[in-house]
Write a structure and sequence with these properties.
This protein is α+β, with helices and mostly antiparallel strands. The chain has eight helices and eleven strands. The strands form three sheets. It has a four-stranded antiparallel sheet. It has a four-stranded antiparallel sheet with strand order 2-7-4-5. Strands 9-11-10 form a three-stranded antiparallel sheet. Helix 5 packs across helix 8. InterPro entries: cNMP-bd_dom, cNMP-bd_dom_sf, HTH_CRP, RmlC-like_jellyroll, WH-like_DNA-bd_sf, WH_DNA-bd_sf.
């Protein structure tokens, strides 16, 4: 019981709508809240058939992506500390038709509000309904930004942007990442990414080694992504 109370108290600090809930709604969430620790590589949510619930990341990193019929992946967006994911509870919004997969990119602690619990509170609470709409609009904006990148930006610029994003996330210029992983993020093929990275290496932008990419000239990568 004491551990449960600590878990809920921590959750209160992370869930932005807690103070907008009434006593009964708070108790409903507290009684049904799921805490979960997942290892890197764990699939947390897999498509429309899986209505996991609303995810709230306490610490770690999640990746939301789509999978084509041919098995190619493309990252839609990532989730970090204190981020919330609604697409994992897409069954509460009937208009959502596309399937997404959510995977832990790092060991992650998270909370899950079961879909039916959140759906019931959303029907009762205008602040929760409004926040849900805002959250969904933000995620669709992320997806639209991605579509613009695919349609209008060449692959070299997208790879440069991805490498710079990774150095920012990891806090280092030495990235332990495979060409296959980059291809999955960008919706490309490993061979294409390998050719692009070898070109970058020839230009003195990066250094390639087994399972690692070292950024040598971040300023030129920044110039490339903006050009």
């Amino acid at each position: 019981m004491f551990v449960k109370e600590i878990t809920v108290m921590n959750f209160e600090n992370y869930f932005p709508l807690w103070n907008d809930l009434n006593t009964a709604q708070k108790k409903l969430i507290s009684d049904n809240l799921i805490t979960q620790y997942v290892k890197k590589g764990t699939i947390i949510h897999n498509g429309n058939l899986d209505c996991t619930g609303l995810l709230l990341v306490k610490s770690g990193q999640l990746r939301t992506y789509m999978l084509s019929d041919e098995g190619r992946e493309i990252t839609l967006y990532r989730l970090f500390d204190m981020d919330m994911c609604l697409l994992s509870a897409s069954c509460i919004i009937r208009s959502i038709q596309f399937e997404v997969t959510i995977e832990a990119e790092k060991d992650t602690d998270l909370w899950i509000i079961p879909a039916e619990i959140y759906k019931g509170i959303m029907k009762e609470s205008a602040p929760v309904a409004n926040y849900t709409n805002e959250l969904m609009a933000t995620r669709f904006s992320d997806v639209m930004w991605l579509i613009e990148q695919i349609m209008w930006k060449s692959l070299d610029k997208r790879v440069a942007s991805f490498l710079l994003e990774e150095t920012s996330i990891e806090g280092t210029n030495e990235l332990k990442i495979t060409h296959e992983t980059i291809a999955n993020h960008l919706g490309s093929h490993r061979e294409v990414i390998t050719r692009m990275l070898r070109y970058f290496q020839g230009e003195g932008l990066v250094k390639l080694s087994r399972g690692k990419i070292t950024i040598l000239d971040s300023k030129r990568l920044e110039t490339l992504q903006r050009s």
